[in-house]
Amino acid sequence: MSVKYIVAIDGPAGAGKSTIARMLAKKLRYVYIDSGAMYRAVTWKAMKSGYDLNDPVKLVSLARNTMLEFKKYKNKITLFADGKAVGREIRTTEVTANICHLADNGGVRKVMVKRQQQTAQGGGIVMEGRDIGTKVFPRAEFKFFLDASVDERARRRYREYQERGVKVNLSDIRRDIMTRDRKDKTRAVSPLRQAADAVVIDSSRLTPRQVVDAMLKVIRK
Ligand code: C5P
Questions:
Q1: pTM
Q2: Which domains are present in the chain?
């Protein structure tokens, strides 16, 4: 495809957004951007540096003063925070539990949205998150809302943890996912919503390949 579009993928935790967005970007030869990694990286930095997570003003200045860039590293588009590639350290349950302090903060979101918009200059990107089709790129050419049942999403996350050798309990994961859904959908600023013009795909009974094929069908039409 010679014209470079913006593809926005939103949806709740565990719906398969990362896997799908990565596969779709590869097919389209686009760049894959994981917007959640940006919220995770700043949360991780705040925790590591002993920030008071209940101080919203300090968190905004921390977000503003953290350099966040997506660059190719070991053949993968990777997030660099303050010049360092971030990895598994931003995916811990402790970071996940504290993200709401940043994700619910309107000032922090403003900083993040601006950076995300700058990343996409020129198009040719697949970006996934919670507010991509509604706030970051309300005029994206293609918008998808990827959903799946809570049980299926919990099972997927459980398998991911198991593959990484992390000991977890399925019912704890299910409860965490439900809590995160509620927080993401009810936050005052930029709650998780399906954009009015998004194509909704329920991936509960679909393989990643089937989901990507369904998206490609929409894009290539
Ligand atoms: O995508 P991931 O599960 O890594 O995102 C972690 C959290 O970051 C989400 O639960 C949400 O609270 C927040 N987030 C957000 N807006 C985005 C991406 C993620 O608020 N665009």
A1: 0.95
A2: 6-210 (3.40.50.300)
